[in-house]
Structure formats: structure tokens, C-alpha cells
Amino acid sequence: MGPVGQVGRVAEGLSRRFLDSLERHGFNFFTGVPCSLFEGVTRILDAEPRYGYVSAVREDSAIGIAAGAYLGGRQPVVFMQNSGLGVSVNALVSLNQIYDIPALLVVSWRGEGGLDAPEHLVMGEVMEDFLRLLRTPFARLTPDTLDRDLAELTRVMHETRKPVALVVSKGQLQ
Amino acid sequence: MTRADAVSRVAAALPPRSLAVACNGMIGRELFTCADAPSRFYMIGSMGLASSIGLGLALVQPSMPVAVFDGDGNVLMNLGTLGSVAAAGTPNFYHVVFDNHAHGSTGDQQTISDRVPIERIAAAAGYRRTLRVRGEAPLSAALASFFVDTGPAMLLVEVDRGNVPNIKRVEPQPPDITARFRRALAQP
């Protein structure tokens, strides 16, 4: 098998491990809008009905669906590309943050390091500042420390009852 | 019929063990004023998302009817969610749209629902049942079975413009609305 196949296999392994880790940390509702940077994860979510993955039409709607799931007793994850953060601003600040409705946002980092298609460059450059401006604690997905990082993010999410974010770079979950 | 009257009639028709999500603006304040309960979630910001919240709730609480009290401005702001509701096919999702063709909470500026029939969009998207009513008798007739038959269903109620003078705001603070809602659900 060539190098591309090997990379694909490793990433699929990490996608599975990532979903398992999310479940171990209590996450049990999954919705979002896809991104090629985590297509390995959505491939599993789409294929396995037990996740009940809800493919949303917009990122703010996904946040609303996740909020409803939280009201109904679940602990939700919302997947989105970082472009979707822009769409989500009002939902995050005038729903989640004022109502104490938590969620884990899994956000892909298009435009990281200025190397991407033009439409991703501005958000790619400001994304970390943007998350700070939105008072959303975040961590980078790092395969070696995934469980520890998720444990810490989940702890902060429960303590603050506010959204937190996990940022996914290119190549990690594809 | 005034919107407040219509909201009150719909609230009175809710099944006993049901959940409700109200959109922002006057509709939430009217529901709070006429029929407050811990099992009501009043969305005061995030315009357009009441149906999304109701969908998430209906998906994870399949044994309970979930009613969304929505407005034409709210539905039009996040029209795509009608597709999400239809695609999910949640049988316990009941969408009530109070349509006055106006943004009633900001001064009755016109929306486009006088030319764009929202319930027909819902029907085209795949809601199992949709109906439009105007006036007290047709509303009463519709409410006799609306929350009993299978969803996803939309009841569009044509209402007059205008607000109740000095109607109170939703009193519990947002974190308390969340907490009491989750507590109410956790009780057997």
C-alpha cells in the first residue's frame, strides 16, 4: 500500500479513537456541519446509526439542536469548520453563554499558517483570537495527549456550563 | 384574533406531559404570561433557533410531545431548519407558527410571509401534516387533534398585528430557565 493509503489508515484509526474518547468523556449527542479536515469522523458518524448524528444545515442551527439535546439531558458535540464559527456567533453569545448551555465544539482550522484557499485565510489567521474574544476556552487536538486534553476541556465545560472548543488541524482526522 | 389570544389557546391545548420552546420576542413573553411552567423554554436571544432547539429536544425525548411556539420572522430567519425537521421526521415535533406578516417585537415592520406561505414550504420539505387557520373556530377545530396526531406537523395561525401593552418580560433569568427545565425533565 502506498503512502496515501497508510496516512488514510492512520487517520481513520485516530478518528475512531477520537470518537471513543468523546464517548468516554460523556459525550452522547452528535451534530454539525462537515469539513474535509475531519471527514474521517463524519464518515463513521454517517455510517453508524448508533451515534444518531444529525447533519445540520448551518452551524448555528447545529448549536441550537445541540442546545435542545442538552435541555433534554444529553452532553452534545458540535462539529464545524472554522468558517462556521462566524455563522455561530449569535447562537454562542445569546443562547449558550447566557443560558449556561454547554457544548464541545470540534472546529477544523482551515487557513492555518496562511496556507490554504483564499476564502479561509482571514478566519484562519484570526481564529484563535476570535475564540478568545468569544470567551471560548480551546485546546489543539494532539493525538498523544488526546484523552488528557479532552478530560481537561470537559472539566472546564462542566464547571463553566459554557461551550469549549477543540481545534483540529489538517491531516489529523481525515 | 390577537396573537396573545392565539398563544393562550394553543398553550391550553398542550398535552399534560409536553415540552415547549418559545421563540424570542413577544411570543415568548405571551406564553410566559398566560401559561408559565418549568417545562417551557423561553429563548430570549438567538432569533431563528427555536425550531432547532425544539428539534434537538424532540430527538432526545422521543416519548414527549415538543411544541415550538414560533413566529414568521423567526422561521424565515432560519428556513433551512424546516428541512432538518422534515429529514429527521421526529413524530413528536409540533411547530406552531403565529404569523402576523410582521416583526411584531421591533415595531411591526413587514416580513415577507404575506407572499411566502410558510406552511407550504414546510409541506414541500416533508412535514407530515401542515395546516393554516384563521379565526377562533378553525383554530379550536385544529387544536382538537393537532398535538395528538403524528408529527412533524405545522400549524400556522394567522394573527393580527399588535402587542399587549406593557406585557411583562420573561422573569426567570436565562440560567434559571435552563436549570428548571432540566430539573422538570429529570422528575419521573
Give an overview in words.
The complex is a heterodimer of chains A (174) and B (188). Chain A has 174 residues and is of the alpha/beta class. Chain A has one domain (3-168): 3-Layer(aba) Sandwich (Rossmann fold), CATH 3.40.50.970. In chain A, helix 3 runs parallel beside helix 4 (83-99). In chain A, strand 5, helix 6 and strand 6 (164-168) form a beta-alpha-beta unit. Chain A has helices at residues 3-24, 39-47, 59-71, 83-99, 118-133, 146-160; strands at residues 29-32, 54-55, 76-81, 104-108, 138-140, 164-168. In chain A, 53% of the residues lie in helices and 14% in strands. Chain A is built from six helices and six strands, in the order αβαβαβαβαβαβ. The longest helix of chain A has 22 residues, at 3-24. Chain A has a six-stranded parallel beta sheet, with helices on both faces. The longest helix of chain B has 13 residues, at 174-186. In chain B, strand 1, helix 2 (26-35) and strand 2 form a beta-alpha-beta unit. Chain B has a six-stranded parallel beta sheet with strand order 2-1-3-4-8-7, sandwiched between helices. Chain B has a single domain, classed as Rossmann fold. Chain B is α/β, with parallel strands linked by helices and 188 residues long.
CATH superfamily of chain B: Thiamin diphosphate (ThDP)-binding fold, Pyr/PP domains
Run of helices and strands of chain B: HEHEHEHHEEEHEHEH
Strand order of the largest sheet of chain A: 2-1-3-4-6-5
CATH class of chain B: Alpha Beta
Structural class of chain A: alpha/beta
CATH topology annotation of chain A: Rossmann fold
Strand content of chain A: 5-15%
Sheet bearing the most strands of chain A, described? 6 strands, parallel
Cα-atom Rg of chain A, whole angstroms? 15 Å
Straight-line N-to-C gap of chain B? 37 Å
Strands of chain B, count: 8
CATH class of chain A: Alpha Beta
Going by CATH, the architecture of chain A would be 3-Layer(aba) Sandwich
Low confidence ranges of chain A: none
The level of helicity of chain B is 25-40%
Domain module count of chain A: 1
Major sheet summary line of chain B: 6 strands, parallel
